[in-house]
Amino acid sequence: EAGVVQSPRYKIIEKKQPVAFWCNPISGHNTLYWYLQNLGQGPELLIRYENEEAVDDSQLPKDRFSAERLKGVDSTLKIQPAELGDSAVYLCASSGTDNTGELFFGEGSRLTVL
Amino acid sequence: AQSVSQHNHHVILSEAASLELGCNYSYGGTVNLFWYVQYPGQHLQLLLKYFSGDPLVKGIKGFEAEFIKSKFSFNLRKPSVQWSDTAEYFCAVIGYNQAGTALIFGKGTTLSVSS
């Protein structure tokens, strides 16, 4: 079974530039999450999708961050414009329908903003 | 609000030493508890989980954790660590059967094992 796939693995951009991250969850997983992981910190939820609906985006900084999951499968997280403080790892995860909370993570996209 | 506290930021051990990483959570109801591990250059993966039943749960690679409800704790243990256990360890909690929420993670503990 294929795991959660994310791309790109690494991205270096200048501040004020846009950037986008892509995620394909495990097949059959309806719930998709984007987490932010700063250096030395645990993952923090940015947004959670149930199918194509964003059911929790309360922690997403909406002035510069946006996300979409148009067909309820893969998802894109965008930052525009990027700031120095956005340098971090952006993790995508998915979960099944058992409501246990167990997450399956991708390898993450490491963003460096110069 | 739910929160998770991991007491040790960085633990350094020699091979064969015993390991215990502390984790306390804040939540008023029934919880599901997890330990995730992130090996260098790899993605977060599940080490073990507790949903109900026997409070002593066993995971992969010889790890175990004990849920102590009265102490709101879920400490991770391993009797004898190996160099390959060098990784970052995250404790996480979610309210039981809380379909409307997501896992809350602690800040993580970095374990360095010297051979």
Task: Give a description of the structure.
The complex is a heterodimer of chains A (114) and B (115). Chain A has 114 residues and is mainly beta. Chain A has no helices and 11 strands. Chain A has strands at residues 5-7, 10-13, 19-24, 31-37, 44-50, 53-56, 65-68, 75-79, 88-95, 104-105, 109-113. In chain A, strands 2, 4, 5, 6, 9, 10 and 11 form a 7-stranded mixed sheet that branches. In chain A, strands 1-3-8-7 form a 4-stranded antiparallel sheet, with no helix packed on it. Chain B has 115 residues and is mainly β. Chain B contains no helices and 12 strands. Chain B has strands at 3-6, 10-14, 19-21, 23-26, 31-38, 45-50, 56-58, 64-68, 73-78, 87-95, 104-105, 109-114. In chain B, strands 2, 5, 6, 10, 11 and 12 form a 6-stranded mixed sheet that branches. Chain B has a 4-stranded antiparallel sheet with strand order 3-9-8-7, with no helix packed on it. In chain B, β8 and β9 form a beta hairpin. The model of chain B has no long low-confidence stretch (mean pLDDT 91).
Structural class of chain A: mainly beta
Radius of gyration of chain A: 13 Å
Strand segment tally of chain B:
12
Tally of contiguous helical segments of chain A: 0
Low-confidence stretches of chain A: none
Shape of chain B: globular
SSE succession of chain A: EEEEEEEEEEE
